[in-house]
Automatic annotation (TrEMBL):
The chain crosses the membrane at residues 95-114, 154-175, 211-237, 258-277, 283-303. The keyword Transmembrane applies. InterPro entries: SpoIIM-like. Keywords: Membrane, Transmembrane, Transmembrane helix. Signal peptide: none annotated. It comes from the Bacteria. It holds the Pfam family SpoIIM. The keyword Transmembrane helix applies. This is Stage II sporulation protein M.
Length: 314
C-alpha cells in the first residue's frame, strides 16, 4: 500500500485517538492495540517516514496512559461499580425506558385478562399454586407459601432462579430483541394477573406490603435485564456507522456488563424473600423497605448515571 493511501485510510482514527482521550481501560487497550498494529506496518514499509515517527510518539503517549491507568483488582472492582456500570446505564437509558414500557403494558394486560377470564390466572400461574394459595387464604395466611421452605435452601434456589431468568432475558436479545421482548411480556402478564388474583379477594394491600419487600428489587432487575437484552438486539438491528459485526460486539459487551451488574441485586432480593418476606412486619416497616429499595433503584440506575455523565462533559 502506498504511504499516502495508508495515511488517508487511518487519519480520522489517529485524530480521534489524539483529540479524544479516554480513561476507560478497555477502550484504551483496544486503541493501543490498533495503534501498535499501524505502527508495526509503518515501520515495515515506511521506516524513515514522518508518519512512522508520529505513530511512535502517539503509541508512547498511549503506553504511558495505560501504565497510569493500571489498577489492582480491588480498585478495578470499585471503578466498575462506581463509574463504569452507571455510565453504561446512561448510554442504555432509552432501552431501559422501552423495557419498562413493555413490562408495564404487559402488567396491565395481565390484570385486565384476569379480570375478564376466571381461568386466566390458573393458565398463567398454574393450578397447583392457585389451589395452594386459596387454601392458605382459608387458613388466614394468604401468603403462607413463603413459610413453607427452609430459609437457606430457599435463598439459594430463589437467587439462582432469578439470575437464570435475568440472563435468559439478556441472551434472548440475540434474536433481534424479539426474544427479550417476549420474556418481558410474559413476566409482566404474570405479575399483573398475580396481583389481580389478590385484589379480587380484597388482599391487594396485604400482598403489596409483603411481596414487594423483595419484589421491588426483583422486578426492577428483570426490567433492567430486559434493557441489557434490548441493547444487544438494538446493536444488531441498528449498527449505525459501525459494521454489523463490530456493533454487535460492542452491544454484547455492554449488555453483558449490565447483566453481570444485576447479580448483587438478585442476591439481595433472594435474601429478602427468604428471610424477611416470611415475617409478619408492621406496615410501616414493610413500606420503608419497599421505599428504600425503590429509591436505590431509581438513584443508582437513573439519576446517578445522569449526574455522572454531566460531570464528564467538557
Amino acid at each position: 500500500m502506498r504511504e499516502a493511501l495508508f495515511v488517508k485510510r487511518n487519519t480520522d482514527k489517529w485524530r480521534d485517538i489524539e483529540q479524544n482521550p479516554t480513561n476507560d481501560p478497555d477502550e484504551l487497550t483496544d486503541r493501543f492495540v490498533e495503534l501498535t498494529d499501524d505502527l508495526s506496518y509503518a515501520r515495515t514499509f515506511y521506516p524513515d517516514s514522518k508518519v512512522t515517527r508520529y505513530l511512535n510518539g502517539l503509541a508512547g503517549q498511549m503506553h504511558r496512559g495505560l501504565m497510569q491507568n493500571r489498577r489492582d483488582e480491588r480498585s478495578r472492582f470499585l471503578t466498575f461499580w462506581k463509574y463504569e456500570l452507571p455510565l453504561l446505564f446512561r448510554q442504555s437509558h432509552k432501552m431501559l425506558a422501552l423495557s419498562a414500557g413493555i413490562f408495564l403494558v404487559a402488567c396491565i394486560l395481565g390484570w385486565i385478562s384476569a379480570a375478564h377470564d376466571n381461568t386466566f390466572v390458573r393458565l398463567i400461574l398454574g393450578d397447583q399454586y392457585v389451589n395452594m394459595t386459596l387454601e392458605n387464604i382459608k387458613k388466614g395466611d394468604p401468603l403462607g407459601v413463603y413459610d413453607s421452605s427452609d430459609q437457606a435452601s430457599m435463598f439459594v434456589q430463589i437467587t439462582l432462579n432469578n439470575i437464570y431468568v435475568a440472563f435468559r432475558t439478556f441472551v434472548f436479545g440475540l434474536f433481534a430483541s424479539f426474544g427479550t421482548m417476549a420474556m418481558l411480556f410474559y413476566n409482566g402478564v404474570m405479575l399483573g394477573s398475580f396481583q389481580y388474583f389478590f385484589y379480587e379477594r380484597g388482599l391487594l394491600l396485604d400482598s403489596v406490603l409483603k411481596i414487594w419487600i423483595h419484589g421491588t428489587l426483583e422486578i426492577s432487575a428483570i426490567v433492567i435485564a430486559g434493557c441489557a437484552g434490548l441493547t444487544v438486539g438494538n446493536s444488531l438491528l441498528f449498527p449505525g456507522t459501525y459494521s454489523r459485526l463490530e456493533s454487535f460486539k460492542r452491544g454484547s459487551k455492554q449488555g453483558l456488563k449490565i447483566a453481570i451488574g444485576l447479580v448483587p441485586i438478585f442476591i439481595t432480593a433472594g435474601f429478602l424473600e427468604s428471610f424477611i418476606t416470611r415475617m409478619t412486619l408492621p406496615p410501616v416497616v414493610s413500606g420503608s423497605i419497599i421505599l428504600i429499595s425503590a429509591t436505590f433503584i431509581g438513584w443508582y440506575f437513573i439519576f446517578y448515571p445522569i449526574q455522572l455523565n454531566r460531570r464528564r462533559q467538557p
